Predict the structure of Bifunctional protein FolD.
Amino acid sequence: MEYQLIDGKATATAIKQEIAEEVEAIVAAGGKQPHLAAVLVGHDGGSETYVKNKVIACEQCGFKSTLIRFEADVTEEELLACVDKLNKDEDVDGFIVQLPLPKHIDEQKIIMAVDYRKDVDGFHPINVGRMAIGLPCFISATPLGILTLLQHYHIETSGKKCVILGRSNIVGKPMAQLMMQKQYGDSTVTVCHSRSKDLKKECQEADIIIAAIGRPEFVTADMVKPGAVVIDVGTTRVEDKTRKSGFRLCGDVKFDEVAPLCSFITPVPGGVGPMTICSLMKNTLAAGKKEYYK
Ligand code: GUN
């Protein structure tokens, strides 16, 4: 069977174009240009790349963006003061603090300090809780990007068996919540993780597998049912001396052997990754329009 490749890059480009057109119309009508601020602490290579790409996406969407940088030795107090300032800045519609943060800073404390009405990452407990009970809210970027891809490719999820690999706060847990809800995935959801006994068997029975465990090439052909939909959230950097950067991104799925079994599959890179940033843009537009919160 011929599988269909889910092109996250093209989908994200199309959605950003739609956002840009809407922003142009808003500004032409005398409305406010959406403004996203990003806080970057230290010089982690992955975080640097993600934040740079977020700034580029803002330009593509016609948003204003502000990048605030701190060295890795920034104190928690200084970071909290920055969050407070952004909360109060009337021009800033939404902002993010790029994770992970250095170990001496309590991430949860920073997340809790963000005004939930500006929490375009959807990490604040108010947004997480509202999402869990199906109320309007900012949905975190990776799960929202995956939902958008499933919709864009008209992939049927209602009543299907969906296995999620991983239970992180930013992907696995919210993804499970969304996939089970009637208004989103409407699927039967199983969450597997490093301690799951029958992980392989659960996967073999899945119509949809969403792999977000951060273990390169973890999902192999013997785990996948013919005709399954496979979404790969993995982005592990593995050394590759043939690349200018010295590394390449490796997904959680052994693509070459799994793809021929699938009805749909996302590549790495070019699958979920570009959609994540696109979702952040969607949330920023919603923040600018005060769509969820006044
Ligand atoms: N680190 C990994 N993913 C994310 C994300 O979606 N938002 C932020 N702020 N940090 C991250």
Summary: Residues 8-28 form the longest helix (21 residues). The chain has a mean pLDDT of 98. The two ends are 50 Å apart (CA to CA). The chain has two domains: 28-135, 141-274.
